[in-house]
Every structure is written in C-alpha cells, then in structure tokens.
Design a protein that fits this description.
420 residues; seven-stranded mixed β-sheet; four-stranded antiparallel β-sheet; 14 helices
C-alpha cells in the first residue's frame, strides 16, 4: 500500500551534503532494533557519538589518565594539557573573549543551578524579579523557584502564543526596575521555537538587566557567538552536541564571574586554606571544585572539532530541509496536530495524534525500530499551555535522512490504524 501523496517525503535539491558518509562515523546507527534498521529521532534528549569522540575517550584513559593541575609528573601534565585544550576549543566554538569565561560543569542543568545559587544568592534580594518564559525546561524553572522560596524573589513568566512564539510585547512590559535577571531558552526543547535572543538581550540591557541563555538545544544545530548575542551567561550540555554525558559548559562574562562566590567548596577551587580563612581561585577554577570530568572535557573537545569540521552552516541548512519536509509530511496525516508552529524553528517536531496516546505511539514506533520521545519533555507548563498531557516528539540531527522521515510517517500511519 502506497503512502498518501500528502505525506510522501521528496528530498529537495540542496547543496550536496553526504549524509551517508557521515552516518558511517556513528557506530550505533548501524544497530538493528526488532530486526529493523534503527531510526534515531530522539536527538533532543541526547545525540549519538561519532567514532572520533569514542576514540578520544579511549585514548585519554589508555594514554593520559591522571588528575589535572596539581601534579608535576608526566601523565598529570599530559592530562592537564588535554583538559585545558578542551577549554580553548570551547572558547573558540562560542567565540568567547577569554578562556576564563568557560567553566566546565556536568551539563546545562548544573550550569543554571550554579548561576542561581552563586549569582542569585549574592546579587538578588527579597522583592527582586527574575523573568523567564512560558516555554522553559524544568531546569530553567525549578532553580529559580528554589531561590524564590529561600530569598523571597519574584518569578515572572513571559507568555507564549498558540504557535509557541514568545510574546515580545509582554516581554518588554514585564521588564522593570525590579527585574534583576532574565533567564530564557535559546531553543525550546518541547516546541522547537527559536527565540530572537539577540533582540531580547538588547531590550534587557537597555535597562541594565543581565541575561542568561539556555543553549542546550541551540548549540548542536546552529552557530552560536556569545559576543554577538552579548548575553551574560550561556550554557549547553555536551551530550546533546555529539559529546559525552556528564560534561557541560557555562559561559559567563568575566566581569560577572569574578564577582560571584563559589558554587561548591573543596579542592582545586582554592588559592589557600587555613582553619581560619580560605582564599578562592580566580575563575574558572573557582567554580570547578574537586576532580573534574577530564575525559568528558576531552571528548567534548573532540565533538566540537567534529561538528566544526563538517561546517555548522551546512549542518543548519541540511537540518532546515529535513524539518521542512518532515513538517509538511506530518501535516498531511489526518488527526495529527503539531504542537509548536513558530516561524523560526529548530528540528523538533512535537505532535499529538487524535485517539492515540503518545506513549502508545512511541511503543509501536519502537517495534518498527524508530526511536522518538513521548511525554512532557521536562516542560510541563508547556503541556498545560497547549492543553495536552504529553506529546510525541521526533527530533532531528544532521545524520538523519529523508528516507528515515518516510519510515516515521509510515510508522505513525500504522500506529494510528492499530490503536485508534
């Protein structure tokens, strides 16, 4: 039986992008699930890793494993060099001014918590306001609620419209003399909406308000220049940008990091310690207490090298074509409703299918070897805004193909006939 014409995916004419060659760099993409080739469409949750990243981890543990900074022996010097070289790569990748503006953390969640506890506790007082948006991941909601409960700050929320776009007029209206920080996502993990971050930062800065940007869903899919954005904090997770889990980055303007107290206490982040007093190290070490994830940083550096080598502009162009075709195909399925139809979107497709629970849909697709996500995506306020308990979410990466979109469409049609 043929797929209905309305949902058939036809690859457009684009600049040559050898996706089949690139797919060979990812060993896991050769996996078969239930006897069928894996179609991995859960990239917003975590991305797969190229062989170059896997090799970098093995090489580090096989040839360089030692603790960093404190040792004078050969292996420690090798490990320190590799760790700090990863920091240099991140600085270049984000176009930060200085390496001391790059702090290694466990992921975007820890980075936001670091800012909430260090910047928030130090600079905010009762009655001060933090402005977030209605499309935030829980990681950019809960830390501010915890600070609210501890210090009595006020949390304000910028609403979104039916397309999942930020109401910029409301954003401007909510900015006032009590606003002491704006904290917003660059790309919504539940909707795919790309926020106009540069413009929003400029609006906040006119009133002297610093801005934090959660870039976890942006960095894998577009070029990010923190100097051009002029944001005060930016963070991302390594595992979403083809790197290892357990490593992430907080970028902060040096002038702010230098005024912020440490997030944690222990070794590495000190200049000197007596029983009477401790003097803390300068950033970034001030915020990297204890033994860091050295191998994770090395692997992250390899991932950024890999992505840069492909060309982030080429990745973005290819993913836009994938998104356009997938969107058109999904819209052609009767009873399917896309959740998130912003004019500027990244490769995230959240949807509900009439009469079919997203979890059941995800189960049927898994039987076909197709991996998607089903649930609230750690964005329960977004689900409440659109009046759904959960969505199915297919999220794209540059190693996905138009043929895989075909298989997704077939799988959804099959699930609809089985379950509705």
């Amino acid at each position: 039986m043929a797929i209905p014409t309305a949902v058939k995916v036809t690859p457009p004419r684009i600049e040559p992008f050898d996706v089949q060659r690139l797919r060979k760099d990812f060993p896991i993409l050769q996996t078969r699930i239930n006897g069928k080739p894996l179609v991995y469409l859960d990239n917003a949750a975590t991305s797969q890793k190229p062989q170059a990243v896997i090799d970098s981890l093995v090489n580090y543990y096989r040839h360089e494993n030692a603790n960093v900074h404190r040792g004078l022996h050969y292996l420690s010097e090798r490990a320190t060099k590799a760790y700090e070289e990863a920091r240099r790569k991140v600085r270049a990748f984000l176009n930060a001014k200085e390496e001391k503006e790059i702090v290694f953390v466990r992921g975007a969640t820890e980075a936001i918590n670091l800012v909430a506890h260090s910047f928030g506790r130090h600079f905010l007082k009762t009655g001060d306001e933090v402005l977030i948006t209605g499309m935030e991941h829980h990681a950019n909601i809960v830390p501010w609620q915890m600070l609210r409960d501890e210090k009595g700050i006020v949390l304000r929320v910028v609403p979104i419209d039916d397309a999942g776009e930020l109401l910029t007029g409301e954003f401007q209206r909510l900015l006032n003399e009590r606003t002491k920080l704006v904290s917003l996502t660059h790309v919504s993990n539940a909707l795919g909406t790309v926020n106009p971050v540069r413009n929003l930062v400029a609006l906040a800065h006119r009133q002297g308000i610093p801005v934090l940007v959660d870039g976890a869903q942006a960095v894998p899919h577009m070029e990010v220049d923190v100097q051009s954005l002029d944001c005060d904090f930016y963070m991302f997770s390594g595992h979403k940008v083809y790197g290892p889990t357990g490593i992430g980055v907080l970028y902060g303007k040096a002038s702010l990091l230098e005024e912020m107290p440490p997030f944690q206490g222990g070794g590495e982040m000190i200049r000197s310690v007596t029983f009477e007093k401790t003097l803390f190290a300068d950033p970034p070490l001030r915020f990297e207490a204890g033994t860091p994830d050295i191998a994770g940083a090395v692997g992250l550096g390899a991932a950024l090298d890999y992505l840069t080598g492909i060309g982030r502009d080429r990745v973005a162009a290819y993913e836009r074509e994938l998104l356009g075709c997938a969107t058109e195909a999904l819209e052609g399925i009767p009873g399917l409703r896309l959740i998130g139809t912003a004019r500027e979107k990244s490769g995230i497709l959240s949807f509900v299918l009439e009469g079919v629970h997203p979890h059941d849909l995800g189960t049927v697709l898994d039987q076909e070897g197709i991996a998607i996500r089903a649930g609230h995506h750690c964005a329960m306020p977004v689900m409440q805004r659109f009046g759904v308990p959960a969505t199915a979410r297919a999220s794209l990466a540059f190693y996905n193909t138009f043929e895989e979109i075909d298989r997704l469409i077939w799988g959804i049609i099959k699930a609809d006939r089985m379950l509705s």
